[in-house]
Amino acid sequence: MLELSLAAGHRDVRSAKLLETVLRGLIVNIGYFPFGAKAPAMVVPTGNDGPAALKKAMENLERMDLALAVAEERWGKGLIATHFRLGPMSAEEWRKFHYVHGRHHVKQILKRIGQ
């Protein structure tokens, strides 16, 4: 999504809704990622190959980091893109979101391995 915005030359930013602001504060500011929310189908990994999924995740994280750096360079420290549940965020907020989200998934993976 961010790559499309960069290619189009404009940010996908709108005003934040109250629920988005609360959720963003919970995740980005406090570092708590709630359990139970369903991920959109387009981002759910397919298949059962752990090493391939990890490789793809790392490639996507590198791609995302590059897009965030380019967006931040182009549009500054302000809002650069709108998350479908958390509303508009800066590059710094997007990075923190992905850190907290990734940590959430590591907990899930460790729980599965322990079973």
Distance between the termini: 36 Å
Please state the overall shape, judged from the principal axes of the Cα atoms: globular
Q: Looking across the biggest beta sheet, what order are the strands in?
A: 1-2
Q: Give the topology string: H per helix, E per strand.
A: HHHEEH
Structural class: mainly alpha
Described by strand count, sense and barrel closure, the largest sheet is: 2 strands, antiparallel
- Strand segment tally: 2
Give the tally of structural domains.
1
Average pLDDT, all residues: 89
* Range of helix content: 55-70%
- Number of helices, where a helix is a run of at least 4 consecutive DSSP H or I residues: 4
Strand proportion, as a percent range, falls in: 5-15%
Low-confidence stretches: none
What is the C-alpha radius of gyration, as a whole number of Å?
Answer: 15 Å
Structure overview:
The chain has helices at 2-8, 18-29, 50-75, 91-114; strands spanning 79-83, 87-90. It has 115 residues and is mainly α. It has one domain (2-36, 47-114). The chain has a two-stranded antiparallel ribbon with strand order 1-2. The mean pLDDT is 89.
How are the secondary structure elements laid out?
Layout: H1 2-8, H2 18-29, H3 50-75, E1 79-83, E2 87-90, H4 91-114
Helix pairs in contact: 2-4
